[in-house]
UniProtKB/TrEMBL annotation:
The name this protein goes by in its record: Superoxide dismutase
EC number(s) given by UniProt: 1.15.1.1
Entry keywords, A to Z: Metal-binding, Oxidoreductase
Annotated gene: sodA
Any GO molecular function: superoxide dismutase activity
PROSITE patterns for the chain: SOD_MN
Manganese/iron superoxide dismutase C-terminal domain location: 101-201
Known catalytic reactions: 2 superoxide + 2 H(+) = H2O2 + O2
UniProt: Mn(2+) binding residues: 29, 83, 169, 173
Family: Belongs to the iron/manganese superoxide dismutase family.
Protein origin, superkingdom: Bacteria
Pfam families the UniProt entry points to: Sod_Fe_C, Sod_Fe_N
Amino acid sequence: MKIINKLPILPYSYDHFEPYIDKKTMELHYTKHHAAYLNNVLLFLKTTIYQDKSLSYILKNFDTLKLLKKDVLKNNLGGHINHCFFWKGLKKNTQISNIFYKEINKQFGNFQNFVEIFEKTAMQHFGAGWVWLIKIKNNLKIISTKNQDYPSFLTDRINMDIIPIIGLDLWEHAYYLNYFNQKIEYVRSFWKIINWDRANKLFLKVSHDSLK
């Protein structure tokens, strides 16, 4: 997986997803929160022997990095990776592919059941974090991760067999200006702007290294 060491250029304006994501939230989310995670990563690495290594290298070799305060790096690197993933996961007027739809029906019973489990997982997650649809060894699973943990951080060691397909930010900064305490409305609105074009492609990926 190639991870860039700068903020990705958004292919849409800050108000593009209104009313589901308001302009102010999108702008603050991107220019303040995401930017801070990336800046913290680069500042952290600047003081280490890994300052010239790519962020892709840092993720893939995270277990073997000889560093103090690795949790600081983990939290901020996760924040950068997760948000890069999130921005790409938003797009209007896309549709799930037939092959992906059939596999969801097969593994979750039906599509509505999948939606309900995803929403329930999001609502039952306490505090900050993310809700994901992942693929691991051809099995689809809905999980949540705490804080800025990337799905590959699910175990004590980095698991590069995990392929994230869909990810939704559950931090309050992602929705509170628009939805206040109505988190469920934010979660439900996600289905209106999910980028199925990208999810369809990620579903077909066979390795984490092939993600783009």
